[in-house]
Design goal:
Largest sheet: 8 strands, mixed, barrel
Oligomer: single chain
Helix content: 40-55%
Distance between the termini: 159 Å
Strand content: 15-25%
Number of strands: 16
Strand order of the largest sheet: 8-9-11-12-13-14-15-16
Length: about 500
């Protein structure tokens, strides 16, 4: 029996309503679930955000610490050299705008090395800390205090009241300080230059302050010196000499001279040492003690030595071939020896000349053995394996390390001229030289005495067993033509100027 239409419509409506209610409950449940998920995600995000914020703070603190350490001297807590340079540049830029005068004080402690050697590096560190503390305590508003390195400090200050400030700094730094129960009066030399009176940029200001410092030290230390016209003229002269030196080396204006080395038995020339000479067209003869250190400072020494070596070896090759001499000695700088490619470069240059490797003697200094024995061994062994002879120069100047010498193929030992002056006169010096001759003989090395200037020295050295001698008694350094003429004269049978001396020496007993 069919239901009435109204009953059917009501049932359909009821089912529809139920479906809508169920759909709404499901939607509400889903919405609630999503809301809970969003809430949890929000909580997680907040925690992550808080963690990131904390990490950012940590990173910022680490960055600040890193910047601080990068700018700060680890021993004294003052600004280091890099930070000081930046501060000086910024200060001068600001002063240029304001018209302010800025003074740069460069400070170097006197006798600091002696303190380190006598009391140890820990005592030296204590003193450096104390100097840093004093400079910090004595700083005025606007001062910048720095430790540039070693025992060197700097203060950037106002350029007003210069004399009063320099005197105050000198007094501050010369007060005694107790270290290990000992009262230490360090003393300090101070150089000062002023912007813009003396210099208009940071580089020149530092250079001029350094020049004033060197003058204060040369005057005995524990004082201050200001840059002035005298130093300005010296600076201009040095700059001019630098420019001319850069031109002179490639132009070949610096030439090899040769000083004869004689056999101690008869005074005959057996070898020559190559020495650099610069006869300037306007300045005249410029001492090697002036231009050689300058070449080292300007990093031109390898170029200078290379050009000199090439010319000298080529010129001396015929002398060796004819038997006039047996060896040519060339000095090399410590900077060259620190170059890992030095020995290879030297052999390459030698191959471009006619001089055989067995006729070349390379002179190295004792200081190089002290500073880098392993590098010295590599170079020396490589050169010796090719036939080059090795001479140890300046033997006896305080760096001698016999244990190191025993490990190296040293062919010749050159006694420094500072030892020779008193032989035959001062018994203590004579005993010392005999002992050093014995030490060198134990190495099976030929012994050359440098700086022999009078007959008494020559007679003593000959009697004591010295093999060869070199000095003004026999011949001064001279141009190639002159030394060749002297050698040919002797080869032709001319009497050597020291024949009488050597004959007298031969009659003496060793050690007398």
């Amino acid at each position: 029996m069919d239901q009435p239409a109204e009953h059917i419509d009501a049932a359909v409506a009821a089912r529809r309503i139920e479906r809508e209610r169920r759909a709404r409950r499901e939607a509400e449940a889903l919405l609630e679930s999503k809301a809970l998920e969003l809430f949890q995600a929000s909580q997680d995000l907040r925690q992550v955000s808080e963690a990131l914020a904390g990490r950012v703070d940590e990173l910022e603190a680490e960055r600040a610490l890193t910047l601080h350490l990068a700018r700060t001297d680890g021993l004294t807590g003052l600004l280091n050299r890099g930070a000081f340079t930046a501060a000086l540049i910024n200060r001068l830029e600001a002063a240029e705008r304001s018209g302010e005068a800025v003074a740069l004080f460069v400070i170097d402690l006197d006798r600091f090395k002696h303190l380190n050697d006598s009391l140890g590096h820990h005592a030296g560190d204590q003193l450096l800390n104390e100097i840093g503390r004093r400079l910090r305590a004595g700083a005025l508003d606007g001062d910048v205090v720095s430790r540039l390195g070693g025992d060197e400090f700097a203060v950037i200050a106002s350029g007003e009241g210069l004399r009063k400030r320099a005197q105050a700094l000198t007094q501050l730094l010369t007060q005694t300080h107790t270290i290990y129960g000992r009262a230490i009066a360090p003393g300090a030399s101070i150089g000062v230059a002023v912007f813009p009176t003396d210099a208009t940029d940071a580089t020149d200001l530092q250079r001029f302050a350094d020049m004033a410092l060197y003058r204060a030290k040369a005057a005995g230390g524990s004082r201050w010196s200001a840059f002035d016209d005298e130093l300005r003229q010296a600076s201009a002269a040095r700059h001019s000499l630098e420019t001319e030196l850069r031109r002179a080396i490639p132009a070949g204006d610096i030439v090899p001279w040769f000083q004869p080395v004689v056999d101690a038995s008869d005074g005959r020339i057996t070898a020559v040492e190559v020495l650099a000479r610069w006869n300037h067209a306007e300045r005249g003869m410029i001492p090697p003690g002036v231009f050689v250190p300058l070449a080292e400072e300007l990093d031109l020494i390898a170029e200078l030595d290379g050009a000199l070596f090439q010319t000298a070896c080529q010129r001396a090759a015929p002398w060796v071939a004819e038997g006039l001499i047996d060896t040519v000695s060339c000095n090399v700088s410590q900077r060259e020896l620190l170059d890992p490619s030095f020995s290879r470069n030297l052999m390459r240059r030698l191959a471009d000349t006619d001089l055989p490797a067995t006729a070349l003697t390379v002179e190295i200094t004792e200081t190089f053995l002290v500073h880098d024995l392993s590098m010295a061994r590599r170079h020396i062994e490589r050169l010796a394996s090719r036939g080059v002879r090795i001479a140890l120069d300046d033997f006896g100047t305080g760096y001698s390390n016999l244990r190191a010498l025993l490990q190296l193929p040293i062919h010749t030992v050159k006694l420094d001229q500072s030892l020779i002056g008193g032989v035959g006169r001062d018994p203590r010096v004579s005993k010392l030289v005999r002992a050093m001759l014995g030490a060198a003989k134990s190495l099976d090395a030929r012994i050359v005495a440098e700086g022999v200037e009078d007959e008494a020295q020559a007679i003593f050295l000959r009697a004591a067993g010295c093999d060869r001698m070199q000095g003004y008694l026999f011949a001064r350094p001279m141009p190639a033509d002159d030394v060749e003429a002297l050698m040919r004269s002797q080869a032709a049978g001319a009497e050597a100027p020291t024949d009488r001396i050597m004959a007298a020496a031969a009659t003496l007993r060793v050690g007398r």
